[in-house]
Amino acid sequence: MNLSHKKILLGLTGGIAAYKVADLCRQLIKAGAEVRVVMTNGAKAFITPLTMQALSGNPVHDDLLDPNAEAAMGHIELAKWADLIVVAPASADFIARATAGMADDLLATLCVATSKPIALVPAMNQQMWANKATQANIQTVAKRGFHIWGPASGEQACGDVGLGRMIEPVEIAEKIDEFFNHKPLKNQHWVITAGPTVEKIDPVRFLTNRSSGKMGYSIAQAAANLGAKVTLVSGPVNLDTPNGVKRIMVRSASEMLKVVESATEKADVFVACAAVSDYRAKEASEQKMKKQGDDGLVLELEQNPDILKWVASHRNCYAVGFAAETQNVSDYAQAKMKRKAIQMICANDVSRSDIGFASDQNELKVFYQNNGELEMVSLGPELKSLLAFELVELINKVK
Ligand code: PMT
């Protein structure tokens, strides 16, 4: 296990399993991690801050309103500092507060104030775990992207037997190791297109569409997190470059094709998520077009090159397309898959406002060839950032 240079914020809440987290902290430090500890008042009833300070080698944080802490490492700094926040044990009460987005103590506030990944390691009585409110809370935070590790089944401190025990420190350490070091796409090159294209009509007017780039950027981030070398070819969008990704900005479909041609030379996977304009003005005007009398204007359009089709017929990589449809979603997507001779197509219904263009969520029907048979998997509805991981793992499995 190698966790060198990894910054792990360990949050302890009230539960008998808190004493086991001392051993977890020791294992993480041994693996090279830098650990900072935050304890709730409940946790301090089960294990002393001094123990956790001695093991982590850092002062324990426990107060949201501590002027000394705010001057040194206050809650916002802590929230930014961590690469991963692990709450172990996570009590039913803490899970409920995290679900509601409460900010009533330091640990809960950190979970609201961070953009970093959070893992909850539940530990509670089996009846409390089975309770409908707890189950609904767990499902909600899981949908938001929290990792849920455990619980295990077995004999509990209260004498009950069932699901609710915290998984053992060694298993938590293994999950943290897998979180940082699971790189199934190592040595693969993925090229991903994202965002809209912009086709010039004259210096102030253009043809484009509503693509925000969120779906394609999420796929790029997921592939990079899983170890791939990623080239993201992007139309104009308002998003930052995903971590560890090489981004090349373009405007028109012709520019996108040119960049894709050279980027895919040695690519393993090509994912065409961009909403490429099918048409462009036959002749873009160098000067602003003037209004011509009271009559309408006829704008002559010509077809843009089909980037995905080009890759599928000229490159030896696994080609994945998207189909943005407003009706007959599955049928039209399958027809597109055939027409473009690609191995996989992800169909989304862009007539809906809760998914598709510009929204944070999406729902996909993914059609792919498997040993000559057409198969289909439904993904979502869920956050594009989560759905992207599932899609990337599916592509890697079936390609
Ligand atoms: O960017 P977001 O706001 O997050 O929205 C995501 C999305 C809705 C844009 C995305 O999920 C999506 O559906 N992308 C494909 C949009 C599209 O152009 O679909 P299409 O059905 O018109 O094209 C089919 C496929 O051919 C697509 O993979 C497209 O990238 C590709 N294509 C199309 C035309 C063209 N000239 N060249 C292409 O490569």
Structure description:
The chain is of the alpha/beta class. It is 35% helix and 26% strand. The protein contains 15 helices and 19 strands. The chain has an eight-stranded mixed sheet, with helices on both faces. Strands 2-1-3-4-5 form a five-stranded parallel sheet, with helices on both faces. A hairpin with a 5-residue loop joins strand 6 (152-155) and strand 7 (161-165). Helix 1 (21-30) runs parallel beside helix 3, helix 5 (75-81) packs across helix 7 and helix 6 (92-100) crosses helix 9. The chain is elongated and about 80 Å long. Bound molecules: ligand PMT. Ligand PMT is lined by residues 193, 211-216, 253, 272-276, 278, 304, 306-308, 321-324, 336, 348, 350, 356-358. Ligand PMT binds at residues 193, 211-216, 253, 272-276, 278, 304, 306-308, 321-324, 336, 348, 350, 356-358.
Short recap of the structure:
The chain has helices at residues 21-30, 41-44, 49-56, 67-71, 75-81, 92-100, 106-113, 126-130, 132-143, 169-181, 214-225, 253-263, 307-314, 329-339, 384-398, and strands spanning 7-12, 34-39, 84-90, 118-122, 147-148, 152-155, 161-165, 189-194, 199-202, 205-207, 229-234, 245-249, 269-272, 279-281, 301-303, 318-325, 344-349, 361-370, 373-383. The protein is of the alpha/beta class. An 8-stranded mixed β-sheet has the order 12-11-8-13-16-17-18-19, with helices on both faces. A 5-stranded parallel β-sheet has the order 2-1-3-4-5, with helices on both faces.
